[in-house]
Predict the 3D structure of the following.
Amino acid sequence: MKTTFNVLTVCGSGTVSSTMVAEKLKEVLAEKGYTIVTTEVKPTQVESYAELGTYDFIAYTTPIPGNLGIPAINAVGFLTGFDEEGFIEEVLKVIQTINS
């Protein structure tokens, strides 16, 4: 069973919100036994990073191109606190799919 996941976190500037999502995601999933390795990028960088094939999923707070070949999860609710549980449920579904 895989316990370490590589995640692209995306925000408009590639620094502030994506870093906040990354750190919060690491903390929440560490409590569930997972290690998260993140790379923070801006939307214009998403396609080139996704093409590397080293990322398990994307957590984004700004619009990104569709059909990148890996799961992409909207993290706005996670960032703002309005739907943290929904976001984590989606992430855990992706992890479960990867591990099946």
Remarks:
- The chain has one domain: 4-98.
- The CA atoms of residues 73 and 90 lie 7 Å apart.
